[in-house]
Amino acid sequence: MRAGSTVESDIYLMAYLVPRAQVYWVGNDGNPAPDYVVLDTRGRTWPDLTITDAAALAESRHPGTSYGVVVDTDGYQVAERTG
Q1: How many other CB atoms are there within 10 angstroms of residue 79's CB atom?
Q2: What are phi and psi of 59, to 5 degrees?
Q3: DSSP 39-58
Q4: Across the strands, what pairs with 53?
Q5: pLDDT of amino acid 7
Q6: Residue 74 has what pLDDT?
Q7: CA dist list (Å): 16 to 21, 49, 55, 83
Q8: Backbone angles phi, psi at 65, to 5 degrees
Q9: Per-residue pLDDT tens for 16-66?
Q10: Distance CA 30, CA 78 (A)
Q11: I want to staple 79 with a disulfide (CB 3.0 to 4.6 A). Which of 6, 21, 37, 52 is the partner?
Q12: How many CB atoms lie within 10 A of CB 44?
């Protein structure tokens, strides 16, 4: 993740991301489409708990924007905006 990126994340990870990115909580409506979506798949603190894939969650929240999962390890996922 590049410094200065925009990131949408669940509540548990926000504090770790704020020093290097503009961070939005994934539960707020009206956030701009971020560069990345970062989730703790074990904590699951986002609004639609039926979605377990960071890219799918990002695309459902930001129609017309494409994302791909670039990290999926140890219960964490990072989806990056593509195209």
Answers
A1: 26
A2: -70, -30
A3: EETTT--SS-TT---HHHHH
A4: none
A5: 97
A6: 92
A7: 10, 22, 20, 27
A8: -110, 135
A9: 999 999 999 988 889 999 999 999 888 766 666 677 789 999 999 999 999
A10: 20
A11: 37
A12: 13
